[in-house]
Amino acid sequence: MRSIILMFILILSWSAATANEDILLYKVENKEGAVSAETIAVGLAKQGYTIAKNQDMNGPYKKQFEQTSFKSYNLMSVYYPEIAQTLVMKYAESGIFAPFSLAIYQREGEEHLYIALLTALAQAKILDVQDPLFQRLEVLNRKAIQTILPNAKELTLEYAPEKTDKRLYTKYSFEIDDEDALDAREEMIMLMTEGMKPSGFVVANYLDLNAELQENGKEDYLFYDAYSLCKLKVIYELSKTKPEAGAFAPCTMVIYHKKGSNKTEIASLNIYNLTSTLAIKDDALLQVLEKAQTDMAAVIEEATE
Fold first, then answer.
1. Is the distance from CB of 85 to CB of 216 less than 8 angstroms?
2. Number of C-alpha atoms within 13 angstroms, CB side, residue 117?
3. Mean per-residue pLDDT for 86-113?
4. Which of 23, 125, 157, 210 shows the greatest Cβ crowding within 10 Å of its Cβ?
């Protein structure tokens, strides 16, 4: 009996060690196709979320790559206004999760639909900040999904994230007087938009978060822009084996200028989130991701010279 108990403890310990605590994954029976990204979007809106974008990826997959293994694959950008605004006022770079992403997908021939999103633990780890607001958001996320899909089952990915000592988001800062910041912003955005095109990046969505802050009496920023960026080849390659990667895509890049700071700052998730959280070891895929990171860094640096 003692040996059986010890073995049971070892199995539980091994499971905990190999579980991925960074991604929240749900599975729901969908043989008849009654559940879709659209029904989930409607449900989230009823729960108080703002749906910034609900992007079908399967159509672009078929158009550009002429094949897909999915019956449906959507990337949804959402945020909970109250928490997003409170976090941005406390931690400027937290806007990289305003909006945050949900991957909603169902493979061809399968009877279940899946939903993947980042946990509070992952968001706090990326920003290197401990704040109960992250846990509060996760509680709301769980409740919303359970309300929309009461039969959904919560799963744990069986692989553990790879450890990394790399910073999980990239931040740029450059000096510019407050009175010149708005004009400089327009030129910088134009240069970045043009610079992204040759590398295959697209702006999937734009959010003027500062307008929402001002509506609620928060006047700290001259501007606060959130751009949801996507590179189709990257998410296509990732989704072949790790469809839950859509919890990072499209990734949000924020450009903001706090009044009185005399500096404009840019923050965005970087590629080490994907390689560590998703435990990616495939050399060819790592090269694709590294190139995307290098290309985006070059676009930002050239636009801010």
1. yes
2. 25
3. 95
4. 23
Q: Which residues pair with 252 in a beta bridge?
A: 228
Rounded to the nearest 10°, the torsion over CA 198, 204, 206, 207 is: -140
Backbone angles phi, psi at 145, to 5 degrees: -65, -40
* Sequence spans of domains, the chain: 15-303
Which residues lie below 8 Å from residue 193, measured CB to CB, with a gap of 6+? 203
* pLDDT single digits (tens) 60-84: 999 999 999 999 999 999 999 999 9
Per the confidence metrics, is the pTM higher than 0.70?
A: yes
What one-character DSSP code corresponds to residue 128? T
Q: What are phi and psi of 34, to 5 degrees?
A: -70, -25
SS3 33: coil
H or E element that contains 10: helix 2-18
Homologous superfamily of domain range 15-303:
TT1751-like domain (3.30.310.70)
Q: Tell me how long the chain is.
A: 305
- Surface-to-core class of residue 43, CB atoms within 10 Å of its CB (0-12 exposed, 13-18 middle, 19+ buried): middle
Q: Show Cβ contacts of residue 142 under 8 Å, excluding neighbours closer than 6 positions.
A: 24, 154
State the burial class of residue 260 (Cβ atoms within 10 Å of its Cβ: 0-12, 13-18, 19+).
exposed
- Tell me the C-alpha distance between 195 and 27, whole Å: 39
> What one-letter code names the amino acid at 64?
Q
